[in-house]
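Input record, target 12 of the design panel.
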């Protein structure tokens, strides 16, 4: 039997938007924190984002990755747009690689920006690149049954807040959703594998957010 399909119910939309706003505030209030990334973090974010949602077809979908032992998740495949997420039986291995890659990048970035004055535009460029690549790679994996874009945006905010930056992708629905999708598509498409449009997009979003924070 196929697991029940999860698509956001309209009655849950306002709840999700409120929960994302609260999570954004929490991340913005923890700028400069240098804890290593763990796979439990997105699980916790996913639970916070979907807290009090009334129309999730299976409780197992909240905070748990596809491919786990639960019968609703063990064989749950996802398609987003024209792309297929990682097959369920490969999700855990893909997440392990993702975690190792992100932590290696964060360790390198941490060493170049130990204090707020060190977070200069030139040093932030590699942080934007790291954010773009891991944002897109998270979407490629699509580890949750639903809510992957929401957690990917939280991830992007979390990475740059680590270096005392304002949130680049706050809120839900995201500002300029169409522009974000257009910039992300070449990076998510494995055949194209071009992160440059997304890097330019995030760099502009960061510049705009920094300018707004100073007004």
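The sequence produced for target 12 reads:
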């Amino acid at each position: 039997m196929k697991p029940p399909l999860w698509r956001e119910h309209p009655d849950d939309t306002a709840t999700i938007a409120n929960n994302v706003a609260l999570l954004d505030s929490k991340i913005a209030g923890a700028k400069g924190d240098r804890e290593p990334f763990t796979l439990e973090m997105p699980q916790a974010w996913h639970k916070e984002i979907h807290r009090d949602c009334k129309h999730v077809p299976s409780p197992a979908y909240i905070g748990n990755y596809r491919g786990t032992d639960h019968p609703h998740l063990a064989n749950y495949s996802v398609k987003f747009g024209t792309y297929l997420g990682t097959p369920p039986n490969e999700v855990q291995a893909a997440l392990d690689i993702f975690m190792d890659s992100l932590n290696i990048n964060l360790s390198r970035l941490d060493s170049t920006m130990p204090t707020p004055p060190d977070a200069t535009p030139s040093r932030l460029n590699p942080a934007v690149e790291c954010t773009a690549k891991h944002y897109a790679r998270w979407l490629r994996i699509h580890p949750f049954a639903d809510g992957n874009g929401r957690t990917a945006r939280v991830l992007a905010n979390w990475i740059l807040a680590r270096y005392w930056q304002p949130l680049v992708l706050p809120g839900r629905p995201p500002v300029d959703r169409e522009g974000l999708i257009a910039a992300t598509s070449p990076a998510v498409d494995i055949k194209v594998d071009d992160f440059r449009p997304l890097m330019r997009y995030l760099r502009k979003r960061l510049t705009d957010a920094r300018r707004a924070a100073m007004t």
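The domain at 10-214 is CATH 1.10.3290.10 (Fic-like fold).
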